[in-house]
Amino acid sequence: MAMLSVEGLRKSFGGNEILKDISFSMEQGDVLSIIGSSGSGKTTLLRCLNFLETPDAGIIRMGDEVLLDAADKRSVRESEIRKKRLRFGLVFQSFNLFPQYTALENVVLACELLAKERPDYKQNKKAIHQEIVTHAQELLTQMGLQDRMGNYPHQLSGGQCQRVAIARALALHPDILCFDEPTSALDPELTGEVLKVIRELADKNTTMIIVTHEMSFARNVSSRVIFMDDGKILEDGTPEQVFENPKYDRTRQFLSGYAGGN
After folding, report:
1. Which pTM value belongs to this model?
2. Minimal CA–CA distance to 85: which of 202, 174, 185?
3. Which of these, 80, 130, 171, 260, is most buried using a 10 Å CB contact count?
4. Which helix (H) or strand (E) holds 68?
């Protein structure tokens, strides 16, 4: 059984259909890159998977659990969505760090809020807090930021901010880590820093969905590549299949605009 299964996903805004019958599945440990031109629906698809947008139609399953069935209004209640959103960790294009908190505090914050819902929180507050802080420190060290934990976002480079954002997403122990064009706001040197971290996560069998314009990364690191155009999936296969033997002229046209895409 697939780890994630998406069936017939549709989403419109103001009568403009952005996602048109999107269906795909992925297995645990997959690194799935989603490529396509701006406006093709990539980010909207990712936001639907993270329940930041509610699809008009379709089903999202994780294993044998239905996370969302757009036809069943019970599954789109905010109380239900809030819990299911934790299954996905989202790293935003523009970092979305809280400027008033340090790197460490940004990673700790969401974990602390969730911990307060635990029935044993009041009795074990100190121990739980220390556990959260220790885990956050380990993640920031993994990101190469062991000397920057006390810095605020304005004291960090864009690449460092994005690595804090990755640590924050990992801190919640998501089943799938999602990236929305994580390097588009960075210069080439900082882009390399962030892609190195993502490659290391891939080597650790982290299940990931990555919306990206980095064709070399998609080709060399992904286990699966999806090419989207006009709200539809045109290609879905291994990097070799999509980059070396695409089925559609539109895919070839898109890839021809990138060095190494042919």
Report:
1. 0.91
2. 174
3. 171
4. strand 65-69
